[in-house]
Amino acid sequence: MAYQHILFAADFADEALRVGERAKDIAHKYGARLSLIHVIEDVNISLGGGYELLPVLPDLPDEALLGEARKTLDEMAHRLGTEDAEQWVVSAPSTKEGILDAARAHGVDLIVVGSHGRHGLALLLGSTANAVLHGAPCDVLAVRI
Ligand code: AMP
């Protein structure tokens, strides 16, 4: 089966470029469309018991934050040489949901994420790669970082 639409989930960690290179290579091999996504998790903290007087935090990331993320994602696309790829910055309750919703909405057939291959406590707590894998409507490639 030839992949047609590959989604690279980009955090802005040092290793992200290496994961992106892999997504780019695969897209090139299959002649597939490539899209880049960065998720900003919604800030939604509810404080109880005595903290009611603290200012209420907004649920949605503000425009400045979204703008910064768009800029950083665009810089990453340039460094990868994938300026033609679509770039999506979305806000969602969780990174997993942001990635999976976009994958479903845009008919993605391969999601590429980085994986630290953690074990022990970190594994029990879960990782983005694990979370994405468990709800994915398509194949997921976890690139070891
Ligand atoms: P983590 O489990 O948080 O170490 O992240 C593992 C991988 O999940 C990263 O290499 C990215 O591919 C993806 N990822 C993590 N955070 C984000 C984010 N905010 N937006 C998009 N992808 C992300």
UniProtKB/TrEMBL annotation:
Record keyword ATP-binding present: no
Residues in coiled coil: none
UniProt cross-references to SUPFAM superfamilies, sorted A to Z: Adenine nucleotide alpha hydrolases-like
Keyword Cytoplasm set for record: yes
Pfam families the record matches: Usp
Compartment(s) of residence: Cytoplasm
Domain UspA: from-to ranges: 3-144
Keywords, ordered alphabetically: Cytoplasm
Subunit structure and binding partners: Homodimer.
Family, per entry: Belongs to the universal stress protein A family.
Name of the featured protein: Universal stress protein
Species this protein is from: Candidatus Competibacter phosphatis
